[in-house]
Design brief:
Elements (H helix, E strand, L loop, with lengths): L18 H8 L2 H19 L22 H5 L4 H11 L9 E2 L6 E7 L4 H19 L4 E7 L5 H14 L4 H8 L11 H11 L4 H9 L1 H16 L7 E4 L2 E4 L4 H17 L2
Parallel strand pairs: 2-3
Antiparallel strand pairs: 1-3, 2-4, 4-5
Helix pairs in contact: 2-4, 6-7, 6-8, 6-9, 6-10, 7-8
Protein name: Protein-disulfide isomerase
Pfam family, one: Thioredoxin_4
Family: Belongs to the thioredoxin family. DsbA subfamily.
Length: 270
């Protein structure tokens, strides 16, 4: 077993001070009921030993990622919980700048990530291109990114910048540029982010800066954070693959097994 490198991906997410109170006051009774139902599902998943955010390292298999046949995967006793989590998390919105793949793809992979997270970068560089080539391009998989900044203002600024790049159709180009190497602190200052936006092909840099600093980017990032917290995300990167939790930048085969399981469950109508 390889040694798990140290880095921000092994640390838990922390809500900003006062965020819980603000979230409670903003939730409608219907939303509260929905969040409560999802949290109950997460409690069940914790009991099953497969909770979100239990980082197991980039070289260690997640318990739910062991090899097996599609039939066995589809018969997973937790499948009902996976289906409910998938419904709660996947948006499947046409025109979503932070998503790649068909809105009606059988399987949705939702990623919760921070731009200072080294494991998030590892997933982007090592696994994501293969998943896009093998599954997204074939119409099997849709990837939806969620900004989940947990390491302070620099992470929040980078998250807002990625949303701003998405406003000009360059989210994924910017996302990949930021994750081309591990960047922390001053490497994510506004002028550096603007340089990366230029490299990524963002045409109107004045608009990019305005969007980065505007209220809409703040609201969009908070929306992604709230969704993650509501389903129990505790660290980055955390994934849902057809609702099945996968924690950490796991080997490619772990994601492939999860996709096969989710596809089989979808085909069986579960």
């Amino acid at each position: 077993m390889s040694r798990t490198p140290s880095g921000p991906s092994s640390r838990p997410a922390k809500r900003p001070a006062g965020q819980s109170a603000k979230r409670k006051s903003a939730l409608t009774p219907r939303r509260l009921a929905a969040v409560g139902a999802v949290l109950a599902l997460v409690v069940a998943l914790v009991a099953a030993g497969i909770a979100l955010g239990e980082h197991s390292g980039s070289g260690t298999r997640h318990p739910s990622g062991s090899a097996g046949s599609d039939a066995a995967s589809a018969a997973d006793p937790q499948q009902k919980l996976y289906t409910e989590l998938d419904r709660a998390a996947a948006r499947r919105q046409d025109g979503d700048a932070l998503a790649v793949g068909k809105a009606d793809a059988p399987v949705v992979l939702v990623e919760y990530a921070d731009y200072q997270c080294s494991y998030c970068g590892k997933f982007t560089r090592d696994s994501q291109p293969e998943l896009i080539k093998k599954y997204v391009d074939e119409g099997v998989l849709r990837i939806e990114f969620r900004n989940f900044p947990i390491f302070g203002k620099d992470s929040e600024r980078a998250a807002r910048a990625s949303w701003a790049a998405g406003r000009q159709g360059k989210f994924w180009q910017f996302h990949d540029e930021v994750y081309a190497k591990t960047r922390k602190g001053d490497a994510l200052a506004e002028d550096k982010l603007t340089d990366m936006a230029r490299t990524a092909g963002v045409a109107d840099l004045d608009r990019f800066r305005a969007d980065l600093n505007g209220p809409e980017s703040e609201a969009a990032v908070k929306k992604d954070q709230e969704q993650g917290y509501s389903i129990g995300v505790k660290s980055t990167p955390s994934f849902l693959v057809g609702g099945q939790p996968v924690a950490g930048a796991q080997p490619l085969e772990v994601f492939e097994t999860a996709i096969a399981r989710a596809k089989a469950a979808k085909q069986s109508g579960k």
